[in-house]
Amino acid sequence: MKDKPEKLIVKGKRLDGRKMDELRPIKIEVGVLKRADGSCYMELGENKVMAAVYGPREVHPRHLQEATKAIIRYRYNMASFSVEERKRPGPDRRSVEISKVSRDAIEPVIIKECFPKAAVDIFVEVLQADAGTRTAGINAASVALADAGIPMKGLVSSCAVGKIDGQIVLDPMKEEDNYGEADMPIAMVMPDKITLLQMDGCFTQDEFKQAFELAKKGCEQIYEMQRQALIEKYGVEGK
Amino acid sequence: MQKTKGDLVLPGDFIGTSEEFLPGSGTYEADGNIYAANVGTVQINLKERSASILPRTDVPPIPKVGDIVIGRVSDIKGSVALVDIARIKGQEDREIATPEQGAIHISNVKNAYVRDLAHEFGYQDIVRAKVIDAKTLRLSTDGRDLGVIKAFCSKCTTALKRKGDKLECPKCRHMETRKIAEDYGSGTV
C-alpha cells in the first residue's frame, strides 16, 4: 500500500483533481449477463462491480420460504484480485455485514407481496475495489432489479461522504478513505427515504448535517445516471 | 408530472392520482397516488379508468389462464394428478416466479371418459398442459398438442417409445397407455 500522502487536499483540489462535491466518473451498463434474469455492471471511478439478479424462484432450503411474500437474498462478494493484496476468497466478517446492510437498503423498495413462497437472489461481485464498493453494489443491484422486471417502489441510489483534512468531501476514494477522518455511506430512495446510513470515524453535529446534505446531492446525481442507463437500454421499442 | 399514454416510466415515477385511475398491473398505490413499479410504457384504459404499465423488460413468469405450461407429475391421487410446473411456454429461459403445484382433475384430462387416472399419467412424466384457473392452478390436457411429452416405464423407469397410440418400453417391452401429446418424444417443449 502507498504511504500516507502529506496532504489530501492540495490547492483546493483533491488528489485526483476533483472538487469537494464532485463524484468520480460513473459508467452503468444494463443487462450485461445473458443467463441472469437481470444484471448491471457499474464503474465508480476505480471501482468495478457486477450485479446479477435471479428469480423470483423456488426457495431452497424450504424452511426459509414465507407464505405471504418473497424473501430477498443479497450476497456481496469481493473477488480475490479486487484489492492490492490478494484477498482470501469467501465470505468473511466484513462481507457478511455488508451483505446484510445492503439487503436492508434494497429490501424496502421491492414489492415482495407479488411473489409469495419465492426468493429473489441478488449477487454483487466486486471485481476491483477502490473505496465505496458497497454503495456501487447497491446502485448496481437496484438497476439490475429493474432490469429483471421485479416490481419496485423506486430505484435505490447510494453514495458516500467522507472527511479529509477537516473538510467534508463527496465520494471518497481509497487514499481519502484510508487516511481520512470519517466515511459515511448512505442509500436513499428518491426523493426522501433513507434506507442505509453507516458511519465510520467522527463528525460533529454540524459536520454530520453538512455531510448528510452533500450525500443526498450525490445520490440525486447517481439516481439520474441510473435512470439514464435504464432509458438508454429500454427507451426505444424492442430491445 | 402527469404521464400520458405511451410515456416511458421507471420504477417510482408518478403516473396519476387514485381519484383518476385504478392501479393496474405494473403499478402501485401510495399516499393517494399511483406510481410505476416496472420499466415500461404507460397504458390507460378509459373504459375501466385504470392505468397500467406495459413492461419493456422481461418480467417474472406468472401463469395466466390460457398459458401453456410444462411440468412434471409429482403425485397421482384418486381423481387428480399433481404437476410441478417448471416453465411457461414462451418464457422458457426464466424460472416460474410463484413455485406452486398445478392440478389436473380427471375430468380435464381429455374429451372422453377416463376410468382410471393411472392409465393417462405416470409418476415423473413430463406433461404439457393449459392453465384453466390461474388462482388455484388448475390445468387441462384436453387438446391434440397437450398431454404427456415424455413418460417413463413403471417397471424399469426407462423412457418409453411411442408405438401407435400406446407407449412401449424399449428395454422390458412393457406396454403402457398415456394421454400423449401428438408430438410425444420429439423433444420439443
What can you tell me about this protein's structure?
The complex is a heterodimer of chains A (239) and B (189). With 239 residues, chain A is of the alpha+beta class. Chain A has one domain (16-234): 2-Layer Sandwich (Ribosomal Protein S5, domain 2), CATH 3.30.230. Chain A has four helices and twelve strands. Chain A has helices spanning 93-106, 133-147, 174-179, 205-234, and strands at 9-10, 13-14, 26-30, 38-44, 47-58, 71-78, 118-128, 156-164, 167-170, 182-189, 193-197, 200-201. In chain A, the strands form three sheets. In chain A, strands 3-4-5-7-6 form a five-stranded mixed β-sheet. In chain A, strands 8, 9, 10, 11 and 12 form a five-stranded antiparallel β-sheet that branches. In chain A, strands 1-2 form a two-stranded antiparallel sheet. In chain A, a hairpin with a 7-residue loop joins strand 3 (26-30) and strand 4 (38-44). In chain A, helix 1 (93-106) crosses helix 2 (133-147) and helix 2 (133-147) runs parallel beside helix 4 (205-234). Chain B has 189 residues and is an all-beta fold. Chain B folds into two domains: 8-55, RNA polymerase II/Efflux pump adaptor protein, barrel-sandwich hybrid domain (OB fold (Dihydrolipoamide Acetyltransferase, E2P)), CATH 2.40.50.100; 68-176, Nucleic acid-binding proteins (OB fold (Dihydrolipoamide Acetyltransferase, E2P)). Helix content of chain B is 0%, strand content 39%. In chain B, the strands form four sheets. In chain B, strands 8-9-10-12-11 form a five-stranded mixed barrel. Chain B is elongated. Chain B starts with 7 loop residues before the first strand and ends in a 13-residue tail after the last strand. The model of chain B has no long low-confidence stretch (mean pLDDT 91).
